[in-house]
Amino acid sequence: MIQKVYDWLDERLDLSPIWRDIADHEVPEHVNPAHHFSAFVYCFGGLTFFTVVIQILSGMFLAMFYAPDIVNAFNSVKYLQTEVSFGYIVRGMHHWGASVVIVMLFLHTLRVFFTGAYKAPREMNWVVGVLLFAVILGLGFTGYLLPWDNKAYFATKVGLQIAEVVPVLGPYVKHFLAGGDIVGAETITRFFAIHVFFLPAILLLLLGVHFILIRRQGIAGPL
Amino acid sequence: MNEKPKQPQTSETFGETAKTKDEISRRQFLTYTLMGTGGFMASMLIIPPLRATLDSVLQKKQEEPMVAVADVSEITDEPKRFTFTLTIDDAWVKNQKTTFTAWVFKSENGDIMALSPICTHLGCTVDWNSNPKYPEEFFCPCHGGRYSKDGVNIPGTPPSSPLAVYAYEVKDGKLYLGKLISRS
Amino acid sequence: MAHERNKNDVKYVGDSRVKVRKEKLYPKPYSEYPGKTEPFFPNFLLKEWMAAVVFLGAFMVLVVSHPAPLEATPADPNDTSYIPLPDWYFLFLYQFLKYFPSGTAVWGAVIIPGFFALLFLLAPWLDRKPDRRPSKRPIATSLMLIVVAGIVFLTYEAVVQHKAQVEAMEASAAQHAQQAAPAPAPQDQGTTATFDPEAAYMQSCSACHGQDLAGTAAAPSLIALNLTVDEVVDIITNGRSGSQGVMPPGMFSGTEEQKKQLAEWVLSHQ
């Protein structure tokens, strides 16, 4: 049955080459931990992506329980954390995942740097990777405010204060992020929108480019 | 390679040796393991959030208190609309005052009936005696649903079950209403 | 193509509008190299997923055993005693900024971190030699090691300083609570001449201005102030709002005489 549906689609859309390219490409020995255990350092990129998937999944479920509003934000987070069974696990996945993403990303970056994998012809993928790093830090910064407790509030206040230091653009950046002169109602809705729509959209786009480039250029050879 | 023509080409492209019908190739074995591992990981990730989203369904309903709605003396044979307020906890919005409506009247045998105004068709609000074409009936303006005075749906109109009734009790000359009882 | 081609000939690929380029930098696929390669699906992916299962198991154990922190009450913008702390991965930037006095904050916040970020982004063009081994490109390697060590150090410092600040804050809060308690007030500050301005400073001021008066992220340095004793007493009493935030009034609650002594002590740090 599935085979028939696939054949029908493949006849028209020529799907096979797409997944065949991904499925059948040969993975070299030097990145395979089964051959050299030290090759586990090549896993960090995959684990970063895996954690990003956890973040997207847990984030989508978190959004079902979250009200981005100064009155309700904290209460909705607290409700999920304390009253919904398994709620603390959903929130915990997103909370700890945020830290794990940074750790994995850091390790992945160091691996790429120290193996010199960014050298020609892979310069562009390094640039995309650095942009991804920035986007993920942005996700961390905007997500930190959302629980709306004192920790979240004052850290954001400090962060925006720092943004204001930027010459010329600073006040505008701060105003764009905060939506006003104070960290308040409009700040939380903006941070929420940036955290769940703007940055994830950019993230997915860059991730797509990152993967396409890896596939096109192949992974860097052994040292 | 002397295989049945139906065999998909994949095993050939990888130079697998011929198999009898019951054997599976190494590639297939790996694929099944992969699917198992993937399924295990997916369920580990999806079960906690799914359980959390279904929590409100699985949680025991809190017992609704009986609320004084009207003096018994106010109740006649003619359905009359009464509103009453309940303080409910709606997830993180605690102590929220919510207003409910009931059509209350004395039926022929003297029992009090308190009907929910929610049409059992698609949830619009029914009104008593509001359509001149159908006097002495509950009428739903959305799709022309009709109910007789005791809340039973009139055959041939959209609703398929009678209006729900409130549990009630009379104490010290006052009518108390409780939870809704569905009659479908 | 075996035969010679004229340099000016244009050869077209399938779509006649797209010219064939002569050379591409795409590396050869690994199937052309010797060595134990294996197909991505299912062989290699299975190994990756084995690692992923172990990783996910450990992650879920962490999640289940350590609920994500959440404070007991929602944000209170008027809470003057809260010491802010960014998420741990921003701590190094936060700490770095502390080393820049108010006028030069732009260096600590933008210029220097921005310079490093730019170096980082442009690494492939700065480190161009084809050799990839870390030992063969000492500048890149050592620079990165220094930066990583710096980040670790700054993060550590930030944590240590934050801890000290919170402890000082809690100690002073406890002290305040003790003073507020009506019953035992025999050696309340100031009834006698035993008032010690340094102790009072440590109690009431050091949480924000730092134990060495050099200032923190929360408040400016008090060293070498260009103020008179009366002006300082006025700031202690009524607070002040300046470029570095607001000092609330009544942070030190003693007699006028004690405030004066405290002010003199602060101004003695030149």
TrEMBL record, chain A:
<dbReference type="InterPro" id="IPR027387">
    <property type="entry name" value="Cytb/b6-like_sf"/>
</dbReference>
<dbReference type="GO" id="GO:0022904">
    <property type="term" value="P:respiratory electron transport chain"/>
</dbReference>
<keyword id="KW-0349">Heme</keyword>
<keyword id="KW-1133">Transmembrane helix</keyword>
<dbReference type="GO" id="GO:0005886">
    <property type="term" value="C:plasma membrane"/>
</dbReference>
<keyword id="KW-0249">Electron transport</keyword>
<dbReference type="GO" id="GO:0016491">
    <property type="term" value="F:oxidoreductase activity"/>
</dbReference>
<dbReference type="InterPro" id="IPR005797">
    <property type="entry name" value="Cyt_b/b6_N"/>
</dbReference>
<feature type="transmembrane region" description="Helical">
    <location>
        <begin position="96"/>
        <end position="114"/>
    </location>
</feature>
<dbReference type="GO" id="GO:0046872">
    <property type="term" value="F:metal ion binding"/>
</dbReference>
<keyword id="KW-0813">Transport</keyword>
<keyword id="KW-0472">Membrane</keyword>
<feature type="transmembrane region" description="Helical">
    <location>
        <begin position="192"/>
        <end position="214"/>
    </location>
</feature>
<keyword id="KW-0408">Iron</keyword>
<comment type="subunit">
    <text>The main subunits of the menaquinol:cytochrome c complex are a Rieske-type iron-sulfur protein (QcrA), a cytochrome b (QcrB) and a cytochrome c (QcrC).</text>
</comment>
UniProtKB/TrEMBL annotation, chain B:
<dbReference type="GO" id="GO:0016705">
    <property type="term" value="F:oxidoreductase activity, acting on paired donors, with incorporation or reduction of molecular oxygen"/>
</dbReference>
<feature type="domain" description="Rieske">
    <location>
        <begin position="104"/>
        <end position="177"/>
    </location>
</feature>
<dbReference type="InterPro" id="IPR036922">
    <property type="entry name" value="Rieske_2Fe-2S_sf"/>
</dbReference>
<dbReference type="InterPro" id="IPR005805">
    <property type="entry name" value="Rieske_Fe-S_prot_C"/>
</dbReference>
<comment type="function">
    <text>Component of the menaquinol:cytochrome c reductase complex. The Rieske protein is a high potential 2Fe-2S protein.</text>
</comment>
<comment type="similarity">
    <text>Belongs to the Rieske iron-sulfur protein family.</text>
</comment>
<feature type="transmembrane region" description="Helical">
    <location>
        <begin position="29"/>
        <end position="50"/>
    </location>
</feature>
<keyword id="KW-0001">2Fe-2S</keyword>
<dbReference type="InterPro" id="IPR017941">
    <property type="entry name" value="Rieske_2Fe-2S"/>
</dbReference>
<feature type="region of interest" description="Disordered">
    <location>
        <begin position="1"/>
        <end position="20"/>
    </location>
</feature>
<keyword id="KW-0560">Oxidoreductase</keyword>
<dbReference type="InterPro" id="IPR014349">
    <property type="entry name" value="Rieske_Fe-S_prot"/>
</dbReference>
<keyword id="KW-0249">Electron transport</keyword>
<keyword id="KW-0479">Metal-binding</keyword>
<keyword id="KW-0812">Transmembrane</keyword>
From TrEMBL, chain C:
<feature type="transmembrane region" description="Helical">
    <location>
        <begin position="105"/>
        <end position="126"/>
    </location>
</feature>
<dbReference type="InterPro" id="IPR036909">
    <property type="entry name" value="Cyt_c-like_dom_sf"/>
</dbReference>
<keyword id="KW-0408">Iron</keyword>
<keyword id="KW-0249">Electron transport</keyword>
<dbReference type="Pfam" id="PF00032">
    <property type="entry name" value="Cytochrom_B_C"/>
</dbReference>
<keyword id="KW-0472">Membrane</keyword>
<dbReference type="GO" id="GO:0016491">
    <property type="term" value="F:oxidoreductase activity"/>
</dbReference>
<dbReference type="Pfam" id="PF13442">
    <property type="entry name" value="Cytochrome_CBB3"/>
</dbReference>
<keyword id="KW-0479">Metal-binding</keyword>
<feature type="domain" description="Cytochrome b/b6 C-terminal region profile">
    <location>
        <begin position="30"/>
        <end position="156"/>
    </location>
</feature>
<dbReference type="InterPro" id="IPR036150">
    <property type="entry name" value="Cyt_b/b6_C_sf"/>
</dbReference>
<keyword id="KW-0813">Transport</keyword>
<dbReference type="InterPro" id="IPR005798">
    <property type="entry name" value="Cyt_b/b6_C"/>
</dbReference>
<keyword id="KW-0812">Transmembrane</keyword>
<dbReference type="GO" id="GO:0016020">
    <property type="term" value="C:membrane"/>
</dbReference>
